[in-house]
Amino acid sequence: MDFAAFKRAVGESFGLVLEGYKERQLKRRIDSLMQSLKVEDYRRYYTLLLSDPEQRRRFLDRITINVSEFFRNPEIFQILETEILPRLLAANRRLRIWSAACANGAEPYSLAILCAEQNPGGGHQIEATDIDEGALAAARRGVYRKEVLQHVSPARLARFFTEQDGNYEVREELRRVVSFRHHDLLKDPYGRNYDLIVCRNVAIYFTREIQEELYRRFFAALRPGGVLFIGATETILQYQQFGFEKIGTWFYRRPAGEKG
What we know:
The chain has helices at residues 3-14, 23-37, 42-51, 53-64, 74-91, 106-118, 133-141, 154-160, 172-175, 208-221; strands at residues 96-100, 125-130, 143-144, 161-164, 167-170, 178-182, 194-198, 222-229, 245-248, 251-253. By secondary structure, it is of the alpha/beta class. It folds into two domains: 3-64, no CATH class; 74-253, Rossmann fold (3-Layer(aba) Sandwich), CATH 3.40.50.150. The longest helix is centred in the first third of the chain and has 18 residues, at 74-91. It is globular. The termini are far apart.
């Protein structure tokens, strides 16, 4: 079994669309996993994935890159807090937000903190999705090590978290705003009429063709005036061809004058 056949078999068996990932990066991550297990060929590794749930979990963790922390790139979140959210709240006091590929939940809970501070009791809705059920389970638990919270101020830590045995648990004020569900960006349908979509450090792992498809679908999922927020290492070079207008280095808006 060569690598192409392995990708097809994994896609058919586990419902993953691996064709969209950049092949060199994908192959390097998978080969590294195989080497750690002393598995020398793709057929044996595929058979192992079929029979061993723990190895399937490790595989999905490695493929989907579940690295996150609260207010990742705080200087960029500062722009979201002081410039982008106030504009969105001026147009709609009850925001509908999608945190796509939310990993361990740090990102949507960070968004919930900002919403709670800027419009307490506003009835905001934050949908948080990911392909990895293990990551979603951790997000629903909402318990984090201190290092994941390094960019959370002492005041926010005191207000929004409860300390337990050296870890920190998200309080109900944030939990009731965020809902978590399984979603595959490459094959599942997208919602509509979001005020803000946050998808950071994800598109960089896909081919250019898949990136373009994602941006088109994100554009369609935003309400007129809604904003797409991308990662610190990402940029949308041809944003105009997807219909966006650029309002900041990491922020792209669907023009407000359009009909939804």
